[in-house]
Amino acid sequence: PYFPAATPGPPIQTTQHNKGPDGANLFIFHIPNHFTNLDMWHLFCHYGNLLSVRIMVEKHSGRSRGFGFVSYDSPEAAAMAIKELNGFVVCFKSWFVFDSLSSYSF
After folding, report:
1. Contacts (Cβ under 8 Å, ≥6 apart) of 92
2. Average pLDDT over residues 91-102
């Protein structure tokens, strides 16, 4: 049987720096509550070399806040992830994936 995670687990970071160069850091909105950082890693790793994955959590409960950040080592990898995953539907929610420095209106 499948038991959804109560928390997203610890952030994943592959280098000392958790951010990539300008244009390589993404903001993801509408992440389902049962998703873990490892789930995010597996979904985003197909588009380039990941530096970090972090689902933001509530301070006291540790539960997902439904958004997070993914950083690549290149803007080209981030652009490919945006192209492929912006609008991606997971659990009836359409994801918003965009450069974390851009201004985006929902």
Report:
1. none
2. 83
End-to-end Cα distance, the chain = 36
Taken as a whole, the chain contains a residue count of: 106
Is residue 105 very low, low, confident or very high in pLDDT (cuts 50, 70, 90)? very low
Distances in Å between the alpha carbon of 66 and those of 1, 14, 18, 58?
24, 23, 19, 10
Q: What is the pTM of this model?
A: 0.84
Q: Which amino acid is at 77?
A: A
DSSP codes of every residue in 44-104: HGGGS-EEEEEEEE-TTT--EEEEEEEEESSHHHHHHHHHHHTT-EETTEE-EEEETTS--
**Bridge partners of residue 52, in order along the sequence:** 13, 71
